[in-house]
Amino acid sequence: MTLDYVALAILILVILLLFYGVIVVHDIPYEIAKKRNHPHQDAIHYAGWVSLFTLHVLWPFLWIWATLWQEDRGWGMQRVAEDQRDMHHQMNQLLTQVESLKAEIGEIKKANNIAANTTQEAK
To answer: Residue 65, by phi and psi: left (phi above 0), alpha (psi -120 to 50) or beta?
Structure first.
C-alpha cells in the first residue's frame, strides 16, 4: 500500500516536471529576446505560448527570430551596407592602382624596345 502512494507521488512529480519543463523550454526564445533587448520581445513571448498549442511548430522560428537581433547592430543590415561601401571604395582604389601599373609597364616596355632597337642598329 505504501509503495502505491510512493509510485503515485513519483508519477505526479514527473508529470509536473514535464509540464513545467515544456513551459521553461518554450520561454527560451523570449529569454534570449529579453537579454538582447529585442524590439519584438512581447510578440516572441506570445508566439511561444501559441507554439505550445500548435505542437511546437513555431518554436524553431521563434528561436531564429530572437537570435538574429543584436542590440549593437540591430538586424545587421546596416553593417553589411557599410562593409559593401568600404569594399567598393577599396576596389576602386585597386583598379586605379592596376591602371597606373599597366601604364608604367607600357612605358617600361617602350623604353626597352627603344633601347633594343638602338643596340640592334648600332651593331
So the answer is: alpha
